[in-house]
Amino acid sequence: MTRVRPVDIVPSLLSADLARLPEQLRQVREGGASWVTVDVMDGHFVPNLSFGPDFVRCVKRLSPLRVDAHLMVSDPETVAPWFIAAGADRVIFHLEAVRDARALLRRLRALGAQAGVAVKPGTPADGLLPLLDEADIALVMTVEPGFGGAAFLPAMLPKVAAVRRAIGERACRLQVDGGINLETAAAAAAAGAEVLIAGHGVFAAADVAGNIRALRAKAQDAQEGTCP
């Protein structure tokens, strides 16, 4: 029997109202979340620019929430240590951007952070599977990365399920990112996702804490409905 772990909802600050960041971080905690994610985009790997290490420092000063940095950048080997030095608790890079993912996972963990590896929708799951013993997180993108608010790609659900089967009893957790709302949270959890990144699904409506609780309840109901 595959171990069942509680579903975590991790709000993406790309969709937060930065003019109200302290308040929104407080609401995230009220909703029971313990992590937030900072989407890092360099304008090369994806066609958008976003946050740098100073934003991570700001979040860490404002809140005890743990921070993961999702690096959508073309040179994660150079960039990742900047974010660990800024206080990121976990760094996730893209398989497509590195030559030796295993070496980078080991390096990030040696620097004191959790380490994860992500794949875009067009990248088969096969490249993730040999890394599951090294990674803390395996991330399957359920949208094309670059912009918040994109629609969930249901065609990614078989990939999510395949990675879940491959993880088995390993400590690595399976994360999905992109287009998460009440409906898609349930579908992703039923396929085996344990960590759901949600931006618009958390911050688009006023009740941030309530949105997190609703997403978690929906995902856990779906997860429990598929357990043997």
Quickly list its features.
alpha/beta; 8 helices; TIM Barrel; 228 residues; eight-stranded parallel β-sheet; 19% strand
What does this molecule look like?
By secondary structure, this protein is an alpha/beta fold. The chain has a single domain, classed as Alpha-Beta Barrel (TIM Barrel). It is built from 8 helices and 8 strands; from the N terminus they run E-H-E-H-E-H-E-H-E-E-H-E-H-E-H-H. The protein has helices at 21-30, 53-62, 76-86, 101-110, 157-167, 182-191, 200-203, 208-226, and strands spanning 8-11, 35-41, 66-72, 90-94, 114-119, 137-141, 173-177, 195-198. Helix 2 (53-62) runs parallel beside helix 3 (76-86) and helix 6 (182-191) runs parallel beside helix 8 (208-226).
Distance between the termini: 7 Å
CATH topology: TIM Barrel
CATH class term: Alpha Beta
* Strand order in space, largest sheet: 1-8-7-6-5-4-3-2
What is the number of independent domains? 1
